[in-house]
Amino acid sequence: DVKVTQSSRYLVKRTGEKVFLECVQDMDHENMFWYRQDPGLGLRLIYFSYDVKMKEKGDIPEGYSVSREKKERFSLILESASTNQTSMYLCASSPGGVQPQHFGDGTRLSIL
Amino acid sequence: GQNIDQPTEMTATEGAIVQINCTYQTSGFNGLFWYQQHAGEAPTFLSYNVLDGLEEKGRFSSFLSRSKGYSYLLLKELQMKDSASYLCAVRDSSRGGSYIPTFGRGTSLIVHP
């Protein structure tokens, strides 16, 4: 069974901090994604990657960056955290083609 | 761009049937997914439609009409554990080479006894 693991379920950080959210998948999937999920707004794509060292902006990349140095790991970086980045962050992976995404359990991030 | 619409919330009775609709506008339709998400948990895959028609999988079925830009998820013999959010996601080949799905805002289904 596919496992997508996010490093933290809950995280509290302060405004201006640099924040790292880590995601690891164990099924050798090419594609990895970072979303944020907010009430009434649904899942919004921040960044995705379709190969090692490759990254593409999603719909709301401002204030975020990503890193994919190894195929199994995709990191989301908040360069200087702000209160409007308080949200649930979901990582997902998928193989190529028409296969569905597999999601991690999410990280609920609070920026104070 | 894409526009995906789902009702925000629905309620239904245990044992009943409920239909959750999803309408979309896209320039390069390449498949539609339904996911289920229980509160505080990860979304999990339910179904995938790329051709017109009905796909049945146990108590859950999903229908697609590409000409109408319309899909629905049908849940039969509702159980309390079906209380969850149901997410419609559409793949658009015009969005980029990786066929990234775009999610609707989700429908919160409440099943009561």
Please provide a written account of the structure.
The complex is a heterodimer of chains A (112) and B (113). The termini of chain A are far apart. Chain A has 112 residues and is mainly beta. Chain A contains no helices and 11 strands. In chain A, β7 and β8 (73-78) form a beta hairpin. The mean pLDDT of chain A is 94. In chain B, the strands form 2 sheets. In chain B, strands 2, 4, 5, 9, 10 and 11 form a 6-stranded mixed β-sheet that branches. Chain B has a 5-stranded antiparallel β-sheet with strand order 1-3-8-7-6, with no helix packed on it.
Secondary structure layout plus pairing:
The complex is a heterodimer of chains A (112) and B (113).
Chain A: E1 4-6, E2 10-13, E3 19-25, E4 31-38, E5 42-49, E6 56-57, E7 64-70, E8 73-78, E9 87-94, E10 102-103, E11 107-111
Parallel strand pairs in A: 2-11
Antiparallel strand pairs in A: 1-3, 3-8, 4-5, 4-9, 5-6, 7-8, 9-10, 9-11
Chain B: E1 3-5, E2 9-13, E3 18-25, E4 29-37, E5 44-49, E6 53-57, E7 60-65, E8 70-75, E9 84-92, E10 101-103, E11 107-112
Parallel strand pairs in B: 2-11
Antiparallel strand pairs in B: 1-3, 3-8, 4-5, 4-9, 6-7, 7-8, 9-10, 9-11
| Morphology call of chain A | globular
End-to-end span of chain A in angstroms? 37 Å
Let me know the largest β-sheet of chain B. Answer: 6 strands, mixed
Helix content of chain A: under 10%
Classify the secondary structure makeup of chain A into a structural class: mainly beta
Q: Mind telling me the C-alpha Rg of chain B?
A: 14 Å
Distance between the termini of chain B: 41 Å
Strand content of chain A: over 45%
